[in-house]
Amino acid sequence: MRNKRLKKFYSRLIGIIFILFVISHFIPVPYQVMEPGIAAELSPMIEVKDGYENQGEFLLTAVSSRRAVAWDYFYISLFAPEDKELTAISEQLPENMEMNEYIELMAELMEESKLQAQAVAFRQAGYQVEVSGEGAEIVEVMENGSAYNNLKKGDLITAVDGKKVEMAADAVNIIKNRNIGDVVEITVIREGEELKFDLETLELEGNEGNPSIGVLISSKGLDYKIPGEVNFETENIIGPSAGSVFSMEIYNQLIPDDITGGRRIAGTGTISLDGEIGRIDGVKYKIMAAKEAGVDLFIVPEDNYQEASEYAADLELLKVNNITDIIEYLEKDLEL
């Protein structure tokens, strides 16, 4: 009789545990799970009209982000797996910004990254490219940033540290390449008057690890004249961090020799109109994605190199500051 009761008790206990396990996979918590995303070949995504076909491949890498459920919270908190981490949703979003607004901003920066990549690639291939833009318009000033009580909504940023700003991505890339605590000179046009402000870069909530002055911006009056046609099919990938490999894929289709030498080359890094390659977030997960895809070389911005080297193991890393660093390195390999 006792054995029968024990069996019934254990059966119910197992059933309850199973139900709780199932439910834990559906209850959302206010966190995101960050983990390795895709390492995807770019040749199916990018086509230069009348461009050359190549044997090797450039690949973009991405971080996967999804809404966490209760099971994720318990599992990651208890076991701290190397390939996953939790980040609070409130910490991911800039102040006063909803998730849909953030996604729209990242999508806009992705489109600008594509334009910049085209301009840089065509110029490197010897073509004349005309780019014009009025600057980066401030759409919101955050209270906890150094821009508060200095810059205003509607100000047009035309230069950062004396470097011309033609689009939002220019300003983002320049500031992102500074250290937290550096002072940057921001030149703006306000009601027809040019003003300059020296602002300290800060680490803001929701943008940890990145220098910021605390403004949200968008491009104004952007116009490109590129002597060729490039078609992108990047689907749901957003953000500016694939700019460097976009440039290299386009460049490789514009020149007769395959600069990859037949290799699979992954990478990450923003791109500016002058070819500078800027730091990105989540480099360790991008390295993991690249290793899973079996790439031969990984291109990494200099500011991300130290962290990348901790996870690269036997994956060869190429530390770069500018698009010319990549081209010169790969051309030298071809000569050997």
Could you please describe the fold and organization of this structure?
By secondary structure, the chain is α+β, with helices and mostly antiparallel strands. It folds into 2 domains: 36-70 and 113-122 and 227-335, Ribosomal Protein S5, domain 2 (2-Layer Sandwich); 130-223, PDZ domain (Pdz3 Domain), CATH 2.30.42. 34% of the residues lie in helices and 30% in strands. It contains 9 helices and 20 strands. It has helices at residues 2-24, 70-79, 89-92, 99-124, 168-176, 243-254, 283-292, 305-312, 323-335, and strands spanning 28-41, 46-48, 57-69, 85-88, 130-132, 135-141, 156-160, 163-164, 183-190, 193-200, 202-203, 211-212, 215-220, 223-225, 230-232, 264-267, 270-271, 277-278, 297-301, 316-320. The chain has a 6-stranded mixed beta sheet with strand order 4-1-3-16-19-20, with helices on both faces. Strands 6, 7, 8, 9, 10 and 13 form a 6-stranded antiparallel beta sheet that branches. Strands 2-15 form a two-stranded antiparallel sheet. Strand 11 (202-203) and strand 12 (211-212) form a beta hairpin. Helix 4 (99-124) runs parallel beside helix 6 and helix 7 packs parallel to helix 8. The model has no long low-confidence stretch (mean pLDDT 87).
